[in-house]
Amino acid sequence: MALEGDRIARVGSGPAPDAVELGRVVILPALVNAHTHLELSYLRDRVPPSTRFINWIRVLMAARRQFPDPSDPRILRAAQEGIDEARATGTGLVGDISNTLVTVPLLRDAGLGAHVFYELLGFNSPDPEKRVEDARAQAREVGRPDDSLRVSLAAHAPYSVSPGLFSAIRADLDGEAARVSSVHLGESQEELEFLKDGIGAWRTLLEELGVWTDEWTPPGGSPVEYLADLGFLDSRVIVVHGVQFSGEDLATLRSLGVTVVSCPRSNRYVGVGDPPIESFYAMGVSVAFGTDSLASVQDLNMFSELAHARRLAPRVSARTLLESATLCGARALGFERDFGTIEAGKRASLITVQVPDGVSDVEEYLLSGIQPGAIRWLEHE
Ligand SMILES: [Zn+2]
Hints:
Layout: E1 2-4, E2 7-10, E3 25-29, E4 31-36, H1 53-65, H2 73-88, E5 91-98, H3 103-110, E6 113-120, H4 128-141, E7 149-155, H5 163-174, E8 181-185, H6 189-197, H7 201-208, H8 223-229, E9 237-241, H9 247-256, E10 259-262, H10 264-270, H11 277-282, E11 286-289, H12 302-312, H13 318-332, E12 350-354, H14 362-365, E13 375-377
Parallel strand pairs: 4-5, 5-6, 6-7, 8-9, 9-10, 10-11
Antiparallel strand pairs: 1-2, 3-12, 12-13
Helix pairs in contact: 2-3, 4-5, 12-13
């Protein structure tokens, strides 16, 4: 492999006079963490694991209220540490959810590839078009998109975003072909219950928050049916979690070309159960992985996420899981021209992982929970 500047110039085999001996390592394209919330990194160890999602949400909301200023130095410092941790564990591109856009300058300064999703919530928002217009203006203020960093609008979840706000976010997405968007979908049983009958823990919470409205009528179907009917889903929208997806949901997502981003460690942490990862693949859906935030996972190491995914999906090939954590993530974030594979023309965002003597199945070894000490960035050699 020959590098020129920050690009891969050639890939081939045979002797090369100025070759660098790397030792017993595997070279990988940098991993893609397709779903995280770096701005929540300050919540590490502040929100304990839960057996009920709604309880985890309540503790999360209470913890966030203790840090009302989005530019609180403690928030920024923790986000910076999160970025450093992602890099140290071999991640070169992130799909970062932000409600405040404070991570944009940090990501840009760090040179980490990022698609920042400026995530909107509003179950009872009186003027969704205006809301989206304002958010678009704020996204523009944080700088022009470039090869490393883009910002677009995203919806939080069906229980926190009104149909009108979904439509306005979708209209913004349609305003420019390169944009992608994201939504948390099919995460908890409570979400299914709420969309089916308009009852349960979400209804109670929305009432407590004073945002419940009788104008909202339960759509009656599954989360996927709901958003497909609203016209929100297509190949430019990633859906995160999918723990509760049925076979029918997965068939719909496949036909629409939607990527599911799975965060299996987070799912267990927040008490929603394990995602049906093998079904995702068996149904032919595009799958990427993410760690989710440090409020629901112990670290931002994508190799740890892969190790957990491997345990949940023993029948999926190691190669397929690795492709999800690289190319599929890059594609879902709209960065496949620069990231995700080792190919001439792509960015030389490459890592090496040390392979101990005696390892014969290298792909399987990469799913064993690689730690930062074994990872190096190739450009630093
Ligand atoms: Zn999330």
